[in-house]
Amino acid sequence: MKSPIGIFDSGYGGLTVLKSIREKLPNYDYIYLGDNARAPYGTRSFEVVYQYTLEAVKYLFSLDCQLIVLACNTASAKALRTIQQNDLPNLFPERRVLGVLRPTTEEIGNYSKSDYVGVLGTSGTVRSNSYVIEIEKFFPSVKVTQQSCPMWVPLVENNSFLEKGGQYFIEKYIDEILTKQPAIDTLILACTHYPLLKESILKYVPSGVKVVDQGSLVAEKLNDYLQRHSTLETKLSKNNDLTILTTEKAEKFDQHLNLFYNNLVKSSTVSLH
Ligand code: DGL
């Protein structure tokens, strides 16, 4: 029987995390689910993000995923805790759902020399204050400045970030956060869509400022997690399989997928309810 690892995002962004996870842990089977039909999540209320994320989690459980990574900061910030504490015990107490916030906040202080860190995220992630609260736990001396970048996910989902208007919004949010706090020396791309904009982002970030994306941090922590949870790990199937699912049209998703898999992988459309 197959017991893949489920990777979930509102859209294409989680593909950046999937890529790093598969580089680190290539033998496992994976199912990626992008809820592109309802993206972006970043501007939606707590209740809606929770409801959509729970639907996705239940769907991945119905495909026998034993372990799910919410490769989405908005879902990790707004839905993960409730799912872990309230839903999982009733649904499948022995299965696990993990997020991307913890792997990032546990490490980020080690990147900064000035102790000033900037968080670039969706409005939902920024409003949840989760990064500020979590970083404070691991690195009490680090001062966090946040910036919501509401145009960035639509720019990725619509593939329009290279256009003049797209570049304007990329520069704008970088300028805003660095004006709020010029001592920042480390910027977290706290949305899994943003690494897809990284080349453009780097054009507007001064050379002394590090830009950290989450993929490798999440992959590293997942590897540790699997080593520490051998009962769960032995249930996972290892055939090097990859299935990609989207709630939007598959042809549309495949255009983004080609950036990662060069036409070798195709997606299928599913409905979550
Ligand atoms: N990739 C999601 C995140 O990391 C995007 C959120 C959205 O759909 O707005 O937050």
Description:
- The chain is built from 13 helices and 10 strands.
- Strand 7, helix 10 (198-204) and strand 8 form a beta-alpha-beta unit.
- It has 273 residues and is an alpha/beta fold.
- Helix 1 crosses helix 11, helix 2 (46-62) crosses helix 4 (80-91) and helix 9 (164-180) crosses helix 10.
- A 6-stranded parallel sheet has the order 4-3-1-2-9-10, sandwiched between helices. Strands 6-5-7-8 form a 4-stranded parallel sheet, with helices on both faces.
- The protein binds D-glutamic acid.
Low-confidence stretches: none
Q: Can you tell me the CATH architecture of the largest domain?
A: 3-Layer(aba) Sandwich
> Helix segment count?
13
User: Helicity, in percent?
Assistant: 40-55%
Order of helices and strands: EHEHEHHEHEHHEHHEHEHHEHE
CATH class of the largest domain: Alpha Beta
Can you tell me the overall shape?
A: globular
Structural class label: alpha/beta
Largest sheet: 6 strands, parallel
How are strands sequenced across the largest beta sheet?
Answer: 4-3-1-2-9-10
CATH fold topology of the largest domain: Rossmann fold
Q: List the domain count as a whole number.
A: 2
Distance between the termini: 24 Å
Question: What is the average of the pLDDT values?
Answer: 96
What's the alpha carbon Rg, rounded to whole Å?
Answer: 18 Å
Q: What is the tally of beta strands?
A: 10
Strand content: 15-25%
Hetero groups bound? D-glutamic acid
Compact overview of the structure:
The protein has helices spanning 14-24, 46-62, 73-78, 80-91, 101-105, 123-128, 130-138, 152-157, 164-180, 198-204, 215-228, 230-235, 250-261, and strands spanning 5-9, 30-34, 67-70, 96-98, 116-121, 143-148, 186-189, 210-212, 242-246, 267-269.
